[in-house]
Design brief:
The protein has about 425 residues and is of the alpha/beta class. The protein has helices spanning about 20-25, 50-60, 75, 85-100, 120, 130-145, 160-165, 180-205, 230-255, 290-295, 305-320, 335-355, 400-410; strands spanning about 1-5, 5-10, 15-20, 65-70, 105-110, 150-155, 215-225, 265-275, 280, 325-330, 360-365, 385, 395-400, 415. An eight-stranded parallel beta barrel has the order 3-4-5-6-7-8-10-11, surrounded by six helices. It binds beta-D-glucopyranose.
C-alpha cells in the first residue's frame, strides 16, 4: 500500500540483518581457520561475535529490528560423526536465542553457510555421499534441542555459490578449479540432505503447536551478455544461468522435492554481464572506475540491478507457490550515499513486486557488521556497523546507513522518494 509519501509493508513483516558464523564469530575450527584471504586476513577472531553477541543483540534491538538470520556452526556442536552435541556450545547458542527472544527478535537459523567440521572436510566434504547422513544426524539432534526456540530454519545458504567457488573457481577451500563433476555432486548431495533434514525438522520441530518453516537460501544472480548480439557472451551467460540457477533450483525444488520446502530464501545482489568471456564485476577483478566508464553501476562486488527483483520474485512465486524471504541483500562500498540509494532502489522494487502479488515475508540486510568476506578478507565492507579491526576491543560504530535502515525497520515502510 502507498500511504501518501511512504510505501507500507504488511503488518508482521520481518526486518533484520544476516550474518554467518565464520564471517563474524571467530574462534572456530573449520576449513577457514587456516585460510589466508587475498588481503592477508583470516577469520580466527573476525568480529568476535562469539563473545560480543550480547552487545550485537543490543544494537539490533536499538535499531528497531524484529528478526536476525544467523548460522549455528556445525563444527562447534559435533566433534565427530554422530557424536552427541557439545552442551557448552549448545548453551552458547541457547543464550543468543534467549537474548533475541527477550528483545522480540525472531531468529532464522542457518544450518550450513560455506563451512564444515574438519572431520567432514577430511572425507571430501559434500562430494562424499557419507556427509548426508552425518548432517542429518546433526540436524536431528539440534532440532530436538532447539525446537521450542526456533521456527524459521534455513538449511543451506547459497549451495550454488559454495559449490561454484569451492569446486569451479578455486576461491573457497578446498580451492579446486573446474571440477564440474564435483560441483554437481555437491549440489545433488546437499539437495538430498535438504530433503531429509526438512522431513526431520517438520516431524520433530513443532514450535508452539505449528510445523516450522524450512527452506534454502538461493543466491539469484542474473547473467547477461554485455553486447546482446555477441554469440560467445550470450553462450557464457546462458551456461552460467543454466548451471547456477536452473540446475540448482531443479535439484532442490524440482518436482516432488518442492514439498521439502515451506519457503524460499532469496539472496539477491544483482547481475553479472559478460564481455569477451570476462565477468564485468569488481569481484572478478574489474575496477569499479573502469566499469563506471562502461556505464555500469557497481558496488565493490557486483553490478546493481534492482529491476531484477521485480523479475525474479514473480518468477519464483509462480513457479513454486511458496512464500519468500529476502534472506540477503546489501552492498559493499565506502560511499554511504551509494548504499542508501541501492537500498532504496531494491526495497522499492521489492515493494512493487509485492504489490503485484509476490508473497514476501521479510528482508534481511547483509550484514549487521563489517566482517570477514571470505577470499577477499576484510576489504569488502557490507556492515551497517563498522568494526575497528585494529583495536583489540573491536568496537562497533554505526555508519550513516544505519539511520536509514533503522527508520525503515521501525516504520515498516520506505519513503517513496529516493534519498538525496
Ligand atoms: C553470502 C555471504 C557473503 C555475501 C556478500 C552471500 O553470497 O551468503 O556469506 O558475505 O553474499 O558477498
Amino acid at each position: 500500500m502507498n500511504h501518501g509519501d511512504v510505501h507500507k509493508f504488511p503488518p508482521g513483516f520481518l526486518w533484520g540483518t544476516a550474518t554467518s558464523p565464520t564471517q563474524v564469530e571467530g574462534h572456530i575450527e573449520n576449513e577457514w581457520t587456516h585460510f589466508t584471504a587475498q588481503d592477508g586476513g583470516h577469520c580466527r577472531i573476525a568480529c568476535d561475535h562469539y563473545h560480543r553477541y550480547p552487545e550485537d543483540v543490543e544494537w539490533m534491538s536499538e535499531l528497531g529490528m524484529n528478526a536476525y538470520r544467523f548460522g549455528i556452526e556445525w563444527s562447534r556442536l559435533q566433534a565427530a560423526p554422530f557424536a552427541p552435541l557439545n552442551q557448552n556450545e549448545l548453551a552458547h547458542y541457547v543464550d543468543l536465542l534467549e537474548r533475541l527472544k527477550a528483545k522480540n527478535i525472531t531468529p532464522m537459523v542457518v544450518l550450513h553457510h560455506f563451512s564444515n567440521p574438519p572431520w567432514i572436510n577430511s572425507i571430501g566434504g559434500w562430494t562424499n555421499a557419507a556427509t548426508i547422513p552425518a548432517f542429518v544426524d546433526y540436524v536431528q539432534k539440534l532440532v530436538a534441542a532447539l525446537k521450542d526456540k526456533v521456527f524459521l530454519w534455513n538449511t543451506f545458504n547459497e549451495p550454488d555459490t559454495y559449490a561454484c567457488v569451492a569446486y569451479l573457481l578455486g576461491g573457497f577451500p578446498p580451492q579446486r578449479k573446474w571440477k564440474l563433476g564435483q560441483f554437481r555432486k555437491v549440489i545433488s548431495h546437499m539437495a538430498r540432505a535438504h530433503v531429509e533434514a526438512s522431513r526431520i525438522l517438520q516431524r520433530d520441530g513443532i514450535f508452539a503447536g505449528r510445523k516450522p518453516e524450512v527452506g534454502i537460501a538461493k543466491n539469484w544472480t542474473f547473467f547477461h551478455a554485455y553486447k546482446k548480439f555477441s554469440p560467445w557472451d550470450r553462450a557464457t551467460a546462458f551456461g552460467c544461468h543454466y548451471t547456477f540457477n536452473k540446475f540448482v533450483l531443479d535439484a532442490f525444488l524440482g518436482g516432488w522435492r518442492r514439498r521439502a520446502s515451506t519457503f524460499i530464501g532469496l539472496n539477491y545482489y544483482g547481475r553479472v554481464r559478460f564481455h569477451h568471456f570476462r565477468a564485468m564485476i569488481p569481484a572478478s577483478g574489474a575496477p569499479v572506475k573502469t566499469l563506471k566508464e562502461f556505464g555500469f553501476v557497481c558496488d565493490d562486488m557486483v553490478e546493481r540491478y534492482p529491476e531484477g527483483l521485480e523479475k525474479i520474485l514473480p518468477y519464483l512465486q509462480q513457479k513454486f507457490r511458496l512464500p519468500i524471504f529476502i534472506t540477503e541483500h546489501g552492498s559493499a562500498s565506502a560511499d554511504e550515499n551509494f548504499r542508501a540509494r541501492d537500498l532504496h532502489e531494491n526495497l522499492t522494487a521489492l515493494h512493487r513486486a509485492m504489490a503485484g502479488g509476490a508473497d514476501v515475508r521479510g528482508f534481511f540486510y547483509w550484514s549487521l557488521l563489517d566482517n570477514f568476506e571470505w577470499q577477499f578478507g576484510y576489504t569488502k565492507k557490507f556492515g551497517l556497523l563498522a568494526v575497528d579491526f585494529a583495536d583489540e576491543k573491536l568496537p562497533r560504530t554505526p555508519k550513516p546507513l544505519v539511520e536509514v535502515y533503522a527508520k525503515i525497520c521501525r516504520d515498516n515502510s520506505i519513503p517513496v522518494s529516493p534519498p538525496v
